[in-house]
Amino acid sequence: MIPAAFEYYRPKDMEGVLSLLAEHGDEARVMAGGHSLIPMMKLRMADVPHLIDLQDVGGLSDIEVGTDSIRIGAMVTQSDIITHEGLATAAPILREAALQIADPQVRYMGTVGGNVANGDPGNDMPGLMQCLDATFHLIGADGTRDVPARDFYEAAYMTAREDEEVLTAVTIPLLKGGHAYEKQKRKIGDYATAAAAVQIVNEGGTCAAASIAMTNLSDTPIYSQAACDALVGTSVDDSAIKAAMAAMLGDIDPSEDNRGPVAFKKHVAGIILRRAIERAWSRA
Amino acid sequence: MKDEITRDERVDNLKGMGCSRKRVEDARFTQGKGNYVDDIKLDGMLFGDFVRSPYAHARITSINTEEALKVPGVLAVLTAADLEPLGLHWMPTLAGDKQMVLADGKVLFQGQEVAFVVAEDRYAAADGIELVEVEYEELPVIVDPFEALQSDVVLREDLVAEDGSVPDGAHGARKHPNHIFTWEAGDKDPTDQVIAEADVVATESMYYHRTHPCPLETCGCVASMDKVNGKLTLWGTFQAPHAIRTVVSLISGIEEHNIRVISPDIGGGFGNKVGAYPGYVCSVVASIVTGKPVKWIEDRMDNLMTTAFARDYHMTGKIAATKEGKITGLHCQVVADHGGFDACADPTKFPAGFMNICTGSYDIPTAYLEVDGVYTNKAPGGVSYRCSFRVTEAVYFIERMIEVLAIELNMDAAELRRMNFIKKEQFPYKAALGWEYDSGDYHTAWDKALETVDYAGLRAEQAQRVEDFKAGKTRSLMGIGLSFFTEIVGAGPVKNCDILGLGMFDSCEIRIHPTGSAIARLGTISQGQGHATTFAQILATEIGLPADSITIEEGDTDTAPYGLGTYGSRSTPVAGAATAMAGRKIRAKAQMIAAYLLEVHDNDVEFDVDRFVVKGAPERFKTMKEVAFAAYNQAIPGLEPGLEAVSYYDPPNMTYPFGAYVCVMDIDVDTGVPDIRRFYALDDCGTRINPMIIEGQVHGGLTEALAVSLGQEIAYDDMGNVKTGTLMDFFLPTAWEVPNYETDHTVTPSPHHPIGAKGVGESPHVGGVPCFSNAVQDAFRPFGNRHTNMPHDHWRIWKTANELGLHE
Q1: A227: domain CATH number?
Q2: What's B309-490+654-803's CATH class?
Q3: Interface predicted TM-score (ipTM) of this complex, two decimals
């Protein structure tokens, strides 16, 4: 559990970060909380000759709750999410989800930016961000660009972010309706056996809008448009929920691991989605 | 002099036996001021670490260390070829087998030690490891012991004769090259006959999966050879420091007086730190070669993958009974997977430990046990993880067989147990498989447990839940887990318990200081059990000095008396007895001194709490403190000055703590998630020394039981790769997963122990595992479940429900 030798940098601003990235290319990695990257380096599964620590770069740790959107800096920690009063009102699903990530010690260090940018299918924030239709803000040598969370993930640890780009913030449009983040895990600190993020709008007993994303059930988070479509226009009764579950199962592609075989994961994914929909609907 | 305080106050001031004295160790532990082996830093200290095999079975065709030696800071790379001239490339195991220290031509399990890189710091060692080039030629891998016994693939060529025959092993005849031993207890033919003629026979096969003790602190050592005075000092995570000294001496040829073994603070052992590991040998050799201290510390993956595992028993049982439910016979057959080397830590005459306690708490007149040990391509070990030797396996076996028999008889499992318990008046009870149980009152404990949890009410609630489930009103089932266990601890009588010929007595040496305080040293070593607290309490009561004035020291072989260490709940039964006996020797001399000071005959004074009083004249007394001063400073005719004693205690028998546990669990049928609603644990460990420490031990043991039964395992794939080598996949429960425990007790003292204490540290684990497992299985009993194997993690519970047709 000892990493190979590496150079450690702690630039004071984004310019410094970008110039290091330009200089070292794919031999460099930026680090936010380090709770995914450092273990990989210690296991010598990630070879990072140049490690760029973002913690001294200003302007990455703010949470701004606006009238029509929420902006969360990349270095905001899971703990910051949990304790932020404005967020608790504007986007309670964030707190509900963050409380189910790892344990308090990890949440003090683990960041939103690291969680979404790393591309680990086990991370909770990517699916959540897809559910909330977040936009990721990237900065590179050629300036800034925005990528929708739903277009960001390509495969495990493969994302739309280029090696020389840094994810600086996420923006979430103002949320409407009821929410739920439901996660089954073996123990505290574990990745999900299955997790579902659901945001749902109830207009007069009819589902006016729904957003559903699943975590750790494919090599990327899965935003299931088909599952959303199965709910919209219904009264979210048992048959509509079953249709949403079936639609979601068509979109995921879990693989066997120590949590269990595929059949088990699919079954649990359905159950977890049902519970998430029911809870979100009860709050909508 | 007028006595200012009452007798009760004097008793309280001692903080002796029965007092929930706060742990004296915790001041340093809770402040991060413990001194563990990795805290030891010596001038010029080097670090050693292993190149480990990625393969479970392979021949090694070459090892090239050239590039590794070029890494700045790397000083040496040891291989088997370097150790061979010293005769140290193999070492004896505690089980009478031998084990490669470094791979000698082949590897037998993933993670096996292949080369030892010695460097100026850990980072250089890690870089050096990366650059040692080892060429492997893969061999067929066997991870299933049943396959091993049929296979043509020979794992241990060193144990096959040139003509292909299979010589006897340390425990007698071997029937296949991959077979280690057959061990029998009881009477085969009469047992077969009872089973053949019985009204009812329940048969079940069960696999008690491989798991690991996983102490928070991994194994490690610092070896320091002083070439000037020829003395080797070895600090390490040793549960048996004196035995390690003797073994090091026997292996290395260094005389025992030139070896000093020190166990500093140990962060949990649970059996993992009993055996000898290649890291110890390599560190010693590296220190001798370099003339500098060498430290070796495992990382978590090393610990889980290579140092001693626990369990891995395939058990098949037949239990015979009358149609009314009176058990008439028990047959148990075990195939034990020992991995690549037989490195079990059992008393030498017991290659399957005390598995022959498997008749449990029941009066079973006829029984037979047969255990076959087998080699496979897995890590060696087979230690007693928070239990006496193989007792968790034995108790799990009988407590599952009882449940299966209850199903066969269509009886309530609590009633079936009550019908078959050994009765109070039958003690001392000679069991069919050989042991003599010292004392017990099982019926009282069982009735108290069932009454406290309202057993009848729970069964009614469960029946209602089943109805509701069938009616579609709930997707949750309720399980009531029962277990009644008898442990066999305190190994043990030297006449039948030794390890490599070292008798399993233990010891205590006491020095009373002139001003009335004391130091006592023991042959045991605490790994968190709180010995410094509890042994002082035993002495406080025995000699009448306050526990707060008594220092307890263990773990330094240069100062502590010889003993066999701490495991198998043996500290209180054996060293605790030695402590009391040494205390009584102190008291006997003190009585003579007091009588002299009081100017009466020895027999005219008697001990009372903290003093000797003249019989019939309680106002005339000398306190133990006064006696201590006089012992050193007053010339007393016929007595040597000083007040010291030593006792080596060879117990006449084991002790047999017991307990009654009940677990109430709700199970989410759709997700397989269990929710432990209630856990009640009644323990009878005989005389209770410190109720608070007992409660803590029970909480800890139950938590490890929860872990093992609900998810903790060392799993291998078909290629012998460890699938659970990190704490992400190896289940170590946190406060979040642990329920609230209700503890209770009865007190049935051991008749042969000086203070009647039986030991408790491991009871909750032994009784807890079947209790949690029975709760899961009981939830599905109404739907036809008979037995499913642990660990009951979410997907396996879900699978049970699925196979019973409980999903849509």
Answers
A1: 3.30.390.50
A2: alpha beta
A3: 0.96
